[in-house]
């Protein structure tokens, strides 16, 4: 048997580079990435299997209003608005949330946020209007299509202060 011709076709959707902000975080199997600078400060909920909703699970606990977790359905509604606005399609349970959708949430709810990639490089940032501090800042890693929320208070304060002073 001799191979005479081989054709390799690439689907159109893979012909372009995807911006980090548009990668959906939905991995059901989180990795332990101890080489990341702040990985030991990651919320333990981020180390659980999220069944496509790792962002919703972690943020509903993180974004507390008067001590109560934010309603997951309210988060999904905001992410649906974001998906329609940014990608012209509905958000569906299990499709994952992009960093750009988190940025949309942060702008809508006036929440500061910082997003780091697997190289500890800042790739997403938003500074809220300081007149309203209803919610804690969202600081996270995006690594292998998974959302790792940093919730250690001291680390969040440190990184938030660094962001204000332009050192991250």
Output the keywords.
alpha+beta; 4 helices; 6 strands; 168 residues; two-stranded antiparallel ribbon; single chain
Secondary structure elements and pairings:
Elements: H1 54-62, E1 64-65, E2 68-69, H2 72-87, H3 99-109, E3 113-116, E4 122-126, E5 138-143, E6 146-150, H4 153-164
Parallel strand pairs: 3-5
Antiparallel strand pairs: 1-2, 3-4, 5-6
Helix pairs in contact: 2-3
Shape: globular
Give, in order, the helices and strands: HEEHHEEEEH
- The parts where pLDDT drops under 50 for at least 5 residues are none
Distance between the termini: 58 Å
Mean pLDDT: 82
Number of helices, where a helix is a run of at least 4 consecutive DSSP H or I residues: 4
Q: Kindly state the number of beta strands.
A: 6
Report the β-strand fraction as a percent range.
5-15%
Helix content: 25-40%
Strand arrangement across the biggest beta sheet? 4-3-5-6
Summarize the main sheet: 4 strands, mixed
Give the C-alpha Rg. 18 Å
Classification by helices and strands: alpha+beta
Would you mind describing this structure in some detail?
The protein is an alpha+beta fold and 168 residues long. Helix content is 29%, strand content 14%. The chain has 4 helices and 6 strands; from the N terminus they run H-E-E-H-H-E-E-E-E-H. The longest helix has 16 residues, at 72-87. The chain starts with 53 loop residues before the first helix and ends with a helix.
